[in-house]
Amino acid sequence: MLSISGLGKIFSGGVAALENIDLRMARGEFIALLGPSGCGKSTLLRIVAGLIAPTSGRVEWAAALQEGDIGVVFQEPTLMPWANVRKNVETPLRIAGVPATERTARAMEMLALVGLENFALAYPRTLSGGMKMRVAIARALITRPPLLLLDEPFAALDEITRQQLNDDLLDICNKAQLSVLFVTHSAAEAVYLSERILIMSARPGTIRRELRINAPEPRAEAFRHSQQFAAYCGEISAALREAAV
Amino acid sequence: MSAARILAPLLLVLGLLALWEGLVHIWQVPVFVLPAPSAIGQALYEDFASLAFSAWMTLRISLTAFVLAVLGGVALAMLFSQSRMIEMALFPLAVILQVTPIVAIAPLIVIWAGMDNPNRALLLMAWIAAFFPVLSNMTLGLRAADHGLLELYRLYGASRWQVLIQIRMPSALPYLLPAMKISGGLALIGTVVAEFVAGSGASMGLAWRIMESGNRLQIAKMFAALLLLSLLGIAVFFCLSALEYLLLRRWHESRVVREA
Fold first, then answer.
1. What is the DSSP letter of A215?
2. Which residues are CB-neighbours of B89 under 8 A, at least 6 positions away?
3. Has residue B14 been placed in a domain?
4. Would you tell me the crossing angle of helices B37-46 and B48-82 to the nearest 10 degrees?
5. Are β-strands A147-151 and A70-73 bridged in parallel, bridged antiparallel, or unpaired?
6. Residue B152 domain-assigned?
């Protein structure tokens, strides 16, 4: 569904952020991009989202996919503080000019999906960090995109909330048959969530290693405490140390 | 707490008025130097019709100038937000207009704009006084929109107009509303200054009443006009504060009440 070949990015200041990235993504696949901070993971995500243009190489889409068919969740929830939760979730549909009644119905559906149906009229500042992230996820899902791009969405949350949101995310992805490109710097999170992990090197970012996680689906709490999980985490930590050099 | 907030200043003002009244009587201050509060009250009562008419004249020009200043400032700031070129070209002119003392250009404005219609000159001067804070803060506010939200809108292919109306305008509200409070006061000050400069005969506002009573040594009436003037200023400020509260209370940090 997505094919990236020979992708490179040099910023106008001369900083080489990405170099020769190749990536093929199948429909329904969950891929994690893991790497030291500043390795260009976010830059890669933004290129895929179409927010910045690559210097070289290309991003190709499956024929069925249009450019707007992407949901993005940034590191920050980036909600409009002056609008309530429901209106925030409706944003992509409002931009597209969808009629108000349909917008509202879809937003309520998405809020139910992330477990916030009772907070539709709340203002963002009254919500916790985890709830704000759920709102951002609901907003990203409202256009029913086949591809979701997540840029360290849970980095600022506490461990318990983060694990809860990880489980919810997997649940949503399975239900909606979503493909996900997930940027993180947590090895454990990457192992728990994804089918494939791409480990990136420090600047300029290249894909140093690819790792397939063979674990039973759907993933559940038990996987987190398995020996297999610990082994994967150990392997990835070693690879990350290597990539940072 | 809220009772004390109203009572404390009220008691202070009443106390000061009583002191004023007492001292004027004890020292037998001539009424053409400093009239007692009771004399001011009497002047206000006796000349209420003419004073209220003048207050209305002043208020009408101030409010018109204020509304035009807000509309003009917001519209120009919106234009600036769309083109850096236009902003670079026009902003220095706005600054020149702002830093030139209104009194210094008043005679010119009276000649150019006020020959056939003195109120037009007053309006223009009040507008110049009130315009800049709105333009300056609104320009800043439109630019202060959350970068992440702007990116989100770009992601979904929003038009410039959608970005302006749905993201930049609400982001600018916390900047615009305090500027409107400043502008409201400046519009009133601008009108009064303009009335002074425009001189007698042409306008019948409160400034004219003040000059007239000064010339006739009717100091009590002068104080009554001053009192009305400050009441107007307070009313304008109060209304704009209420507007700010209504628009920001639900979401803006400045309105968040935290439990101690």
1. -
2. none
3. no
4. 90
5. parallel
6. yes
Q: Which residues of B touch A125 (CB under 8 A)?
A: 251, 253, 256
Residue pair A77/A133 in contact by the 8 Å Cβ criterion:
yes
Contact between A51 and B149 using a beta-carbon 8 Å cutoff:
no
ipTM: 0.86
Over residues B52-81, the pLDDT tens digits come to: 999 999 999 999 999 999 999 999 999 999
Domains held by chain B: number: 1
**Given CA atoms B159, B165, B170, B172 in this order, what sign does their dihedral have?**
positive
CA-based nearest distance B41→chain A, Å:
47
A95 contact B CB<8A: yes
Q: Does the beta carbon of B252 lie under 8 angstroms from any beta carbon of chain A?
A: yes
Q: Which token pair is B158? A: 């929003």
Binned average pLDDT, 10 residues per bin, chain A of 245 residues: 79 80 83 82 84 83 66 91 94 92 92 90 90 92 89 84 85 83 84 84 78 75 77 78 72
Q: What would the mean pLDDT of B89-102 be, rounded to a whole number?
A: 88
What whole-number distance in Å separates Cα of residue A211 and Cα of residue A35? 13
| Amino acid identity for residue A205 in this structure | G
CA distance B70 to B128: 11
Q: What is the CATH number of domain A2-69+146-244?
A: 3.40.50.300
Q: Which of B149, B162, B253 sits opposite A78 (nearest CB)?
A: B149
